[in-house]
Amino acid sequence: MHILESSTEVALPQVTKSRRGRVFLKAVLSVVWLVALLETAPRLFFATNLVMHQSVRRALLGNDDSSWRLFWIVAHRQHEEWTGKYSIYHPERGWAVMPNVRNMTPFGKGKFVNSNSRGLRGSNEYSYSRTPGKQRILVLGDSFTFGTDVSDSDTYAHYLESSLPNAEVLNFGVQGYGQDQSLLYLQEEGVKYHPDVVVLGFMFMDTYRNLWNFFAFAKPKFEMTQDGLKLTDVPVPSPEQVLAREPYRSKAWDFAFILSEKIRWSLGIKEKEAMQLTRPILDQIVSTTHAIGAIPVFVYMPAYEEVDDFSDSMSSHEQYLNAFCKEQGIACMFLRPRFRREALNGVKLESRFHWTPEMHRMAADEIENFLLQQGIVKKSTPQLAEGGLTPANLH
Questions:
Q1: CB of 214 within 8 A of CB of 68?
Q2: Mean pLDDT calculated for residue range 305-328
Q3: 288 and 191 in contact (C-beta within 8 Å)?
Q4: Which pLDDT belongs to residue 54?
Q5: For residue 181, how far is the Cα from the chain centroid?
Q6: Is this structure's pTM higher than 0.90?
Q7: Exposed / middle / buried, residue 32 (Cβ in 10 Å: 0-12, 13-18, 19+)
Q8: Which of 258, 344, 243 is nearest to 58 (CA)?
Q9: pLDDT of residue 58
Q10: Measuring CA to CA, how many Å separate 326 from each of 205, 321, 332, 347, 374?
Q11: pLDDT tens digits for 65-83?
Q12: How many Cα atoms are found within 13 Å in the side-chain-facing hemisphere of 129?
C-alpha cells in the first residue's frame, strides 16, 4: 500500500505537466488560427473588392494612409497614376512634374501638357536669375493650380502672365499636393527664383493631405513637436519599394485603422487635427516668403461643392483662412464671390471635376485685380536693374 501511494505521488506531477503542455499547445494553435483568420479575411476582402469600380472602392475605403495606399496599389497596377502620366518620383516630396514634357494629351484631344527643363508647367524657360524689368510671381498649389483637365494656355497662371506683360508667372502647381509639399517645393526650388510675390492657391481639402504620409503616392509628413514642425517619412520610398513591402503589410491592421479613422472623421476629430497641423505649415510658407524679400498672397480657391455654394457669408473653411491672414497681416482674397456672381448670371460652372478654362480665366482676372488694387504689382513698370523689384519699390 505504501509503495502504491509512493508511485501515485510520482506519476501525478507528470500527468499534470503533460496536460499543461497540451493546453498550452492548444492555446498557441488557437491564437495562430485566430490571427490567421483575422489576417486572411481582410486580405480576401480587399483583394476581391479593390478591383471593382472606382466608386465601389471609394465607398469601402476612407480618408487615411491605409486607404490611399491600397487605392494607389490598384491604380498603379491598372496604369492609372493619380499623380498623372506627366509626373516622376521625388525622394523629398513624393512626386513632381516631369521635366521636358512635350505636347502630352492626358486630358483628351487638344488639351496639351508641356513642362520646361525644371518641371514647371508650360514651355517657357525661367532662369534662376531675374529678368531685368520683369516682376516675378511664383504660384504654389495643387491640381487646380497646375491645371488638370486644361491646356497649358488655359491655366490661371498662364492667363495672369498674359494680362501682366511686365510679369513672369511661374506655375509651381503639382497635382495632388498638400500645403506641406508646396512648402517643401518653395524651400527647395522656389526661393532660387527670387520672386517678388508668392501666391498660394489655397484649397481647404489640401489641409487633409497634410495629415497623411500617403495620398496620390507616398509622401512626406510634418509632425508638430515642442520645437516646431518636424519632417518625417523622408526619403519617401520609391514605387518599387512600396510594392515590395505590400505583401508583408498586415491587412487586419489596415482594416482596423480604416474603421477607426472613419469614426474619427465622423466625430470631426480629423478635421480639427488638419486645421491645427496646417497652421504652422502656412506660417512657414509666410516666413520663407518674407525671408527672400517677397510678398505672400493667399487665394482661397473653391472646388467641387464649394462652387455650388451661393451664400453671401463666408463658409467655416473660408473663415479659417481669413482668420489666419488677419492674424498674420498678409494679403488674402476669395474667389467664390466671383464664381457666385457668374453662376447667378447664367454662366455654367464645373463643380464635379476640375475647373474649366473659363473658370481659370475668372480666377486670373480676380487675382490680377486684387494684386493691382493692393499695389503688390503694377500693370507696367520702368526698366529695372537685374535683381527685379523689391517690396519697398512696389508701393
A1: yes
A2: 97
A3: yes
A4: 57
A5: 7
A6: no
A7: exposed
A8: 258
A9: 63
A10: 21, 9, 8, 32, 15
A11: 999 998 898 888 877 788 8
A12: 3
pLDDT at 364 over 90: yes
> Which residue from 274, 278, 304 is spatially nearest to 208, judged by alpha carbons?
274
Please list, residue by residue across 87-100, b when 16 or more beta carbons sit within 10 angstroms of its beta carbon and e when fewer do.
bebbebbbbbbbee
d(C-alpha 254, C-alpha 69), whole Å:
10
The CA distance from 212 to 72, in Å, is: 14
- Residue of higher predicted confidence among 36 and 276: 276
Please give the share of the chain, as a percent, with pLDDT higher than 70.
82
Q: Which of 200, 153, 160 is nearest to 299 (CA)?
A: 200
**Dihedral sign, Cα of residue 268, residue 273, residue 278, residue 279:** positive
Q: Are 295 and 198 in contact (CB under 8 A)?
A: yes
Burial class (CB in 10 A: 0-12, 13-18, 19+), 68: buried
How far is the C-alpha of 168 from the C-alpha of 158, rounded, in Å? 9
For 118-146, the pLDDT digits (tens) are 999 999 999 999 999 999 999 999 999 99
Domains and CATH numbers, the chain: 86-236+277-394 (3.40.50.1110)
Q: Which three three-digit cell numbers place residue 219?
A: 509622401
Beta bridge partners of 171: 139
Between CA 32 and CA 195 the distance in angstroms is 60
